[in-house]
Amino acid sequence: MATWGATGGRATTGAADDPAVAKLQALIRIPTVSDRDPERVDAAAFEAFGRELERQFPLLHALDRTTIAAHGLLVHWPGASAERPVVLMAHLDVVPVEGEWRHPAFGGDVVDGAIWGRGTLDDKGQLVAVCEAVETLLATGFTPAQDVWLSFGCTEEVSGSGASDAVAELTARGVRPWFVLDEGGAVAHEAFPGVSTPIGVIGVTEKGVTSLELRAEGRGGHASTPARRGPTARIARAITRLDASAMPSRLPEPTIELFRRMAPHAPLPLRALMSNAGRLAPVLARALVAAGPEAAAMTRTTVAVTTLSGSPALNVVAQTAGAGVNIRVMVGDTVEDAVDHVRASVGDEHVHLDMIEANEPSPVSPRDEAFELLEATISAIFPDAVPAPYVMMAATDARFFTEICERVYRFAPFRMTKAQREAIHSYDEHLGVEDFLDGIRWYRRLIEGLPS
After folding, report:
1. What is the enclosing helix (H) or strand (E) of 26?
2. How large is the angle between the packed helices 253-262 and 268-275, nearest 10 degrees?
3. Closest by Cα among 156, 138, 313 to 221
4. Would you call the peptide bond into 123 cis, given omega within 30 degrees of 0 as the criterion?
5. Cα-atom radius of gyration of the chain, to the nearest Å?
6. In this structure, are residues 261 and 388 in contact, taking their beta carbons and an 8 Å threshold?
7. Residues near 48 by beta carbon (within 8 Å), at least 6 away in sequence
8. With contact defined as beta carbons under 8 Å apart, do 214 and 346 qualify?
9. Strand partners, 111
10. How far apart are CA 271 and CA 276, in angstroms?
11. DSSP 301
12. Which residues, 6+ apart, have CB-to-CB distance to 22 below 8 Å?
């Protein structure tokens, strides 16, 4: 029996020598860091990534390809039928490096049974797993039962146009996917306090991302003669009022089903509560709020103050002060609900609300034949895991595909510990070698299992 280490990777002899590992290492070493300002993007790195991807996966690149948003890629693999096409997604851009890493962030080192580096989990590991599964199937002459499209974005981390451009291209070609699968979710170890069984969480929806800026203006002046309730003071008061308020908590249906499925694996004191999550939803919601910020975020729309601006000098009273507010809109709420909550909580007509971006929550995808295929594939490759739906709290490129598809799911077929999940967008991001290889096997199984 394999044993699991701190990295979530299994100690297996020779796994690190698998050719797929070297492919992921090569692509991790190319720093495809995205930025909202196109002038700050290293286009040469993205171009180098594209060349390396083609070098590593020549059969895939012999298929019909379309460049999307400068450095993204849309690939068409014809199947025996085009009736129910499938889109497999990933993205090649990464966030900047921060913090003190145990191993170089763009080194791609294999240490202690894991591949280390920015993008191993988000999202080059998934991209390479998809590509390796397709490449090896192409090498055998395999034809999928349905058309398979690969959509690899290059602007996901900055909410750029890559995904919407891909949707526009598919629409122009008359493609209406049967289902779409993107990042998000995982075979999550330590998914819930007291539950030791890994949960294969499949995102059936995601919160809507909305950003506001609170802005207060005034005369400003010399810091030696400050007036009461100047712009900075108003913004400070607005922030404390927001921090003291919270939107109502409740459990959406996917979360209720998640708890029902976890219930048999929960400690006895929690088992009855979780198995009756539908009937006891208000009680469970209150318990989650009390359990801390991560659990509380499962129950409601969240409002976080993230950026601040004020005076340009220590001895100058600001003429304009501002605060950025990031809102994650829960399924069942709307952007309007969230904005109304912010306005009412701030309670100051002199603090203006400027909308930066507004995105409603994604529609909830059905748990029908397509979802059951994902569940069955999880059970085949990860027999100890419990497949379950959930509400994804982060944003993905998948949300744009809801325009052309009602079955949009979010799942990365990798085992991840809590520490690994915390490393995403942070430091020491790493993926177990055997976990990576299991992800490749998962995609192969999924493609081979597409129904005719």
Report:
1. helix 19-28
2. 140
3. 313
4. yes
5. 23
6. yes
7. 30
8. yes
9. 114
10. 9
11. -
12. none
Contact call for residues 155 and 84 (beta carbons, < 8 A): no
Dihedral sign from CA coordinates of 111, 23, 449, 370: positive
Helix (H, G, I), strand (E, B) or coil at 322: strand
pLDDT in tens, 271-299: 999 999 999 999 999 989 988 888 899 99
Give residue-wise pLDDT tens across range 293-310.
Answer: 888 999 999 999 999 999
Residue type, 322: G
Longest CA–CA separation in the chain, Å: 79
The answer to whether the CB of 145 falls within 8 A of the CB of 54 is no
* The pTM of the whole model exceeds 0.85: yes
Residues pairing with 192 in the sheet: 195
Q: Nearest CA to 85 among 162, 180, 182, 151? A: 180
Task: Give the integer Cα–Cα distance in Å for 233 and 98.
Answer: 32
Tokens 């595909």 locate to 401
Which residue's entry shows tokens 């712009």? 231
Sign of CA dihedral 393, 397, 401, 406: negative
3-class DSSP state of 352:
strand
Higher pLDDT, 97 or 7: 97
CB 156 within 8 A of CB 397: yes
117 confidence band (pLDDT: 50, 70, 90): very high
Q: How are beta strands 320-329 and 186-188 bridged, if at all?
A: unpaired
Rounded Cα distance, 14 and 359, in Å: 46
Residue type, 161: S
CA distance 196 to 314: 52
* DSSP assignment string, 56-116: H-HHHHTSEEEEETTTEEEEEE--SEEEEEEEEEEE--BPPP-S--SS-TTT--EETTEEE
Handedness of CA 373, 376, 382, 387 (dihedral sign): positive
438: Cβ contacts below 8 Å, ≥ 6 apart: 381, 382, 413, 414, 415
DSSP 36: S
Say whether 254 sits in a helix, a strand or coil: helix
Strand order in the sheet with 351-357: 302-309, 320-329, 208-217, 351-357
Q: What is the DSSP letter of 284?
A: H
**The amino acid at 371:** F
